[in-house]
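Before the break, one more example. Copy the sequence into your notebook; we will annotate it together after we see the structure.
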Amino acid sequence: MYEDPIRPSHGSADCQSVDKNTPSPELFITVRLSSAALKTIQNANDASSQRLCALDPSPSVTSSALAILTPPSPGSPRDTSRWEPMSTELWLGGIEQYNASFEGYEAMVALEVIEHLQPNVLSRFGVVTMGTYRPRLLLVTTPNFDFNAKFPRAEAMMQSNKGFVDPTGRTDRVFRHSDHKVEMTSAEFWEWAEASAADWGYTVELSGVGISDRPSYYPPSDPNMPRRPIFATQTAIFRLTSEPTRSPRSVRISELPFMPGSQESLHTHKLAGRFVHPATVQTGTGTGKMDGIADVRTRVKRCMEAWEIGQVSLTELWGVSEVAGACAGRKRYLVGCLGGFGDCEAIPPGGEEVAREYAHDMTQRYDAEFKVIAQDGVLSVVWTTWVPRRNEVKDEDDWGVMDEHASEKETEGTGGW
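Here is what the structure looks like once it is written out:
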């Protein structure tokens, strides 16, 4: 739509955000199926997901979404190793409507959603998503109105039909898309996100993706801090930490005794498709269960010894079938075995059998051997006790050792020089 080059693709960037903060969520839902959201679904549809759900108000997305959510045929490029069955669902309807099926999901993604919501619907976004469904992680992206200055001037945009006047009449702003109901500045988005997080018991991390080939920056509020770039798209990562400070009016639907037929099924979204992706491979033990923690660590050590490295990305390690198989396709289990990260807690020896009050100290001692770190937005595994193997070239080693007797002879013959 606009000519200024933007980078990077925020579909892949948002996938990295989810993976960084909730390593391979087993229960995953995405709201409104933009092209970026469809890419997110495709990346989330991996061997470790157990439930994957998509929601969109428009029936026009049905064919493209079902093409991704339908089980692939054997041998197709989409066919991946799967240790456990996975269910996928596509629902049609608005986010403001309650759906009991959405409760219990670990991660929820709303890419390019809130800017399309009418004011009365946007006011219900927080109470429905964070106040009712309460995922452990919620990722929200939306256009940054501050970035629009990088596009042609408003007058030129209107004359060339490249911009759209605020259809709600609340502002005199020119938006990027004809269906946008709101485009927030960075300050407005920060205020909205922080208020929502405080209301519903979440913390929020604010950032963005996409800059032009001529980056611009906000004036520094603190001269000692690095400048903030003006991103094309704003991102907010909400993490569940506590009970809500607000008591939301229930959005759940119950049958009214004086209105027969008002049951929940008449008021929820329309199910457009539901599928089951069968398991295709066995786990490391062949029993369908995960291997023990020590066995998983042994497999990781074998890989890193073979590669002769002390640090490797989690993605590369997960690509080894014997490692993924030992974890029964659950990446969170692998992270837990290697010391944990974020809300994916370390698993102490004995797992759940260890009393919680002793788990912290035991984990500290046990997990000194491995740790999981975030580096440039990517999770990596560090084997802290790894020692590189020396090149066993005896002649080269001997060459670097001084012969004391030879030194004495040389000294005698040269007068000490």
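Residues 10-253+263-273 form a domain with the Rossmann fold fold (CATH 3.40.50.150). The chain has a mean pLDDT of 77. Try to locate both features in your own notes.
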